[in-house]
């Protein structure tokens, strides 16, 4: 059975990640999303869930899935449709994830890691674990099927195909067959004595009933033995002979039920080995089924975790009245949006930040300049976050967002100097740029934030001009925020048709609106505004 909730034609694999995904997470501030997604946002019994109750698996899976970009529109829209179902049926995905999570924890308790490892445990204990795990698999599958039937309103292709495969590949007949065989092996799990629920509290025996086919060779010796049937027989434990009446003795003697006639220790040990060998033989026949179910539940735990993590983010947005919309995957020449907000900031602060509009269709270069503290870096991050979310099928924090698919996506944000650096800041910047250039490929987008500002204005402008012009010639889409005004003016004066220029809006009284508007690069960043605000005149 296949899960296929992340891709229409395959299961999840942590391959094809962005180059330097750690830098993307750091530069865009995505760790906020991973932290929020790890906790349920719905109060339980009138109290907010404590931080130590976070399910770190959710945040880890969200990070991994977001760092593996989808490569086609079909894959993006396939995942978007499933997320729409999750938004409309939040209880379903939560229940499905909880079933897979509960099953995984119980599986680990039964010895998931040690199962079938040579020398990890004795043979009988290993066999017992396999029976118990198969019981667990069967019961969980039945609960998942019941859950799917209860939510018949699911509309996405991913969920409807998932529920259909469950019914087709694990139908009632197959389930009944497995349950019947497991019921026949109860004797191996229950031991010799236990209280029967339907026996009114009286003690009962669980013993094996086996039918063997055996040939007789010369010397009246047993030949090959084959198994015809095996089952479990339960009966009440008999009283001691001295405690039974004469009538009870006669009745017992005439009873047509299996009676254990072996007396010696050697015979009992042989019977125990025979029980174990036959049970092992039957369970070996289930190995293909168990391997298939093992892969199914491992995938289910990962894939439902992504959707439950998204569900937690959606709930947080709903509480903060933050609207989301599903982006459109367009051609690589397209980039336009309306009301785009910085999603991580919105999640962290619990309120809407300022939204921005932009029409960059047909542009290879977008240069953003303007006043300090005017929202330029926030604007660039908002585009980067939306691009990553588009490419993993998630909704974005915007009224509308359209962009191409760029599997080679890079960020280069200026870093503060710290003890981890083995060289100067400019050398560190150039080293990261060199790594990006070496990994550019078909469909590349690069976000540069204050790059090359760690040297002089003249030198930084020369480096920026050389690097960005080379990237544009290679077909790379470049979005840059810069204070290198000489570079910005030089690019503007070339009047390149594939370049667009925005500036951070500033009112005459120095007020920042955090809006980006079309305009030529100015010759100042209005740093005196901040000086007067902080120091005073």
Overview of this structure, please?
The protein is α/β, with parallel strands linked by helices and 537 residues long. Helices cover 47% and strands 16% of the residues. The protein has helices at residues 21-28, 31-37, 56-66, 73-88, 90-109, 123-150, 157-169, 172-184, 186-190, 246-254, 265-284, 287-319, 343-349, 376-390, 425-438, 457-473, 485-493, 527-534, and strands at residues 193-195, 203-217, 221-236, 328-329, 335-340, 356-359, 365-370, 400-403, 408-413, 444-449, 477-481, 499-506, 512-518. The strands form three sheets. A six-stranded mixed β-sheet has the order 9-10-11-7-12-13, with helices on both faces. The radius of gyration is 33 Å and the shape is elongated. The chain starts with 20 loop residues before the first helix and ends with a helix. Residues 192-202 and 237-241 have low confidence and may be disordered.
Number of strands: 13
Bulk shape:
elongated
| Radius of gyration using CA atoms only | 33 Å
Helix share of residues? 40-55%
Strand neighbour order, sheet with most strands: 9-10-11-7-12-13
The termini sit apart by 72 Å
Q: How much beta, percentage-wise? A: 15-25%
Write the layout of secondary structure elements.
Elements: H1 21-28, H2 31-37, H3 56-66, H4 73-88, H5 90-109, H6 123-150, H7 157-169, H8 172-184, H9 186-190, E1 193-195, E2 203-217, E3 221-236, H10 246-254, H11 265-284, H12 287-319, E4 328-329, E5 335-340, H13 343-349, E6 356-359, E7 365-370, H14 376-390, E8 400-403, E9 408-413, H15 425-438, E10 444-449, H16 457-473, E11 477-481, H17 485-493, E12 499-506, E13 512-518, H18 527-534
